[in-house]
Amino acid sequence: MALFLQRLVDGLSEGSIYALLALGLVIIYRGTGHLNFAQGEMALFSTYAVYQFGEWGVPIGLAVLMGMAVGFVLGAGTEVVLVRPISRKSPFAVFIVTIGLFQFLNWLDGALWGGQQLPSSAMGSKQGKFPSLFPNNPTDYFNVFGAAIKWQSFWMLVLVLVIGGGLYVMFNYTKLGLAMRAVASNSESSKLVGIRTGTVLMVSWGIAAAVGALGGVVYAGLTTNVNQSLMFSVFIYAAAAATLGGFDSPGGAVVGGLAIGVIQNLVAGYADEWVGQQMKVGVAFLVILAVLLLRPAGLFGTSKVERV
Amino acid sequence: MTLLSARGLTAGYGPLKVLEGIDLDVNEGEIVVMLGANGAGKTTTMRAISGVIARHGEITFGGHNIQKVGPDAIVRAGIVQVPQGRGTFPELSVEDNMRAGAYVRRDGSGAVQADIAKWFELFPRLAERRTQRAGSLSGGEQQMLAIARALMSRPRLLLCDEPSMGLAPLITQELFQIIERLNRDEGLSVLLVEQNANLAMHMASRVYLLETGRIVASGTAAEIGADDTIRKAYLGF
């Protein structure tokens, strides 16, 4: 029981990172119908920025907010400079552009911060490990039914629920959210009711990248370092989470992310001998496949309904 | 008094020029009907006035030049378009569609809510379906919703792009009665384009005939109806 609980909470906390990235994917997909392949690398760039702010002595709380601001500017700028002009010509080209951006940002991280793990004493880092938003010393845990739950895991879960809840409120109860839903539903009609669709999409990309940045920073805090390949697998899981939850459902992204984290951890924990560490990925995808066979739009996705 | 005035209005899509320079007026309190066949440029005229496509020429609204302003400023100025084929937000609830229609307003959610209640009285079937997704409504209901949504911006001029398209004659009749009532009771000016003109002619103050991007005839409904060639070509009797 104690072991199960521990694996469950570990899975939830890992899943919360996938959920944050997946939320970003969903926000962009809802607004524009594009899968942003560069979502993980945008988050990684912001994560490097947070490391840099830390080197300059900025306290972690403030550094994270600044990192999210960097993410917002990066996302909004991408929409204005790359996505908008290209989607006018061909929607499919946007996907290719985000793949190009994926490679460019990864190269840029390497050019600015080098290919090794950071912080690194060889590179003269002042920080001993990547700053964590939440207490992550070996003694920072509490006991529930005999299971030792890390405070870090607990707070990560709280964080994703707060962000997910905040986005839910924004989408459903604010004017910006109404505009975002309207643009996603019918762009031409949005213009006709006076919504500046360009601004809405720019802000959507900005919010998506800022939320993703938060995911990157938290993940780097968990692994205690940042490196160029940090977000590769996270992005894959985030895309899987969004698919599982339904690509147009923020709530689905959260549930999908948490579910994938939990499945992975339970499978790795209980079926290690016959599934093996390397294959736990495959098990998560089998579950997704099964869900999509029954519900093609994902757990919480809406299938399109229209009468004419 | 002239509300909307266009002089030498041209517009098109990329290299394709659809409007070849049209002159058009809508006076305060009028219902102006524009007739034309498929491809004549009716929808392009609407989209050019709404500012969702690039356009040239002189357009003034209430005496102000609106040629250079974007679609959001045009809605704020008081022109709103009911697009062809309803153009509702299918994934949004009926009420959210109405709220989106009030997007440009700055007078608070209380006033918006009061307007929603007011238009639900005019369109009781929408009130019954207020929490339903717009995409699940019938064609007639969606057209009602498109008009109600447009009214939410408190317009002075309503542009209606073929509201009768795909609707049963009885529903079309009901729709036109509502438009007439809005014109009479709310003082709303209307520019309406139609392909099938019989019903529209009855309520028109004035009529324009559009043919391949040019206005080929204009006059009062009586004048246009009295012209044999025009009547045969556009009214079919």
UniProtKB/TrEMBL annotation, chain A:
Transmembrane feature ranges: 12-32, 60-83, 90-108, 153-171, 200-222, 228-247, 254-271, 283-302
Subcellular location: Cell membrane
Keywords: Amino-acid transport, Cell membrane, Membrane, Transmembrane, Transmembrane helix, Transport
Protein name: Unannotated protein
One MF term in the entry's GO annotations: transmembrane transporter activity
Homology family: Belongs to the binding-protein-dependent transport system permease family. LivHM subfamily.
A GO CC term assigned to this protein in UniProt: plasma membrane
UniProt topology in membrane: Multi-pass membrane protein
Annotated GO biological process: amino acid transport
Organism: freshwater metagenome
UniProtKB/TrEMBL annotation, chain B:
SUPFAM superfamilies with a match to the protein in the record: P-loop containing nucleoside triphosphate hydrolases
GO biological process entries: L-amino acid transport
Molecular-function annotations in GO: ATP binding; ATP hydrolysis activity; branched-chain amino acid transmembrane transporter activity
Gene3D superfamilies, sorted: P-loop containing nucleotide triphosphate hydrolases (3.40.50.300)
UniProt keyword annotations, A-Z: Amino-acid transport, ATP-binding, Nucleotide-binding, Transport
Residue ranges occupied by any ABC transporter domain in the UniProt entry: 4-237
Keyword Transmembrane helix: no
Any Pfam family: ABC_tran
Family to which the UniProt record says this protein belongs: Belongs to the ABC transporter superfamily.
PANTHER family, A to Z: HIGH-AFFINITY BRANCHED-CHAIN AMINO ACID TRANSPORT ATP-BINDING PROTEIN LIVF
Protein name from the UniProt record: Unannotated protein
Lineage: unclassified sequences, metagenomes, ecological metagenomes
